Amino acid sequence: MTADQLAVYEKFESNLTRALLLTRGSAAPHLALGASFTQGLLSDLDREVIVLRVAKLRNSEFERKLHLHLALKAGLTAQDINAIEEGYLTAMPVDRAALVRYVDDCILQHAASEGSFTELRKYYSQNDIAEVTHLAGHAAMTAMYLASLRIPIDEGIASWDNLADIEAAQQRN
């Protein structure tokens, strides 16, 4: 690794980062984008609902493993997580069910239906929905990258703690 690559890798030591470093210049921006959602419009709980649902739909054990403790920390229970992962909409509060249905449409149909957008709009602003869509797409892209390049799941998962540093460095450049 070059010194610049090593600096990126040290922020998030994982097989994902190693694989992202195979690209010419997208490793740091990809990680910074992921980190940006921690400072975004969505609550920690909503963010983890979205990522866990995408992880389930894309069969991404890496993303599930990375986000499971974050989901618990955000206030989701094991029962909540099961309902999200299995798509048990009737077992969720109506706003969360609308969020999961919207994410399902985005990931499975590649666009939200009019019905899922209208339902989600009852609970979230236009700006929130833009962020929901962007986060779902980012999580799906990460899952696709991991699966397509056969990137093995890490034995120990790196912490998100240093990812905000990547975002700050990108903004300075």
What features would you describe in this structure?
By secondary structure, the chain is an all-alpha fold. It contains ten helices and no strands. Helix 3 packs across helix 10, helix 4 crosses helix 6 and helix 7 crosses helix 9. The radius of gyration is 16 Å and the shape is globular.
Features:
mainly alpha
Order of helices and strands: HHHHHHHHHH
| Strand tally | 0
Structural class: mainly alpha
State the helicity in percent bands.
Answer: 55-70%
Main sheet summary: none
Distance between the termini: 21 Å
Which percent range describes the beta-strand content?
under 5%
**Average pLDDT rating:** 89
Radius of gyration: 16 Å
Shape by Cα distribution: globular
> Which ranges are low-confidence, i.e. pLDDT below 50, for 5 or more consecutive residues?
164-168
How many helical stretches? 10
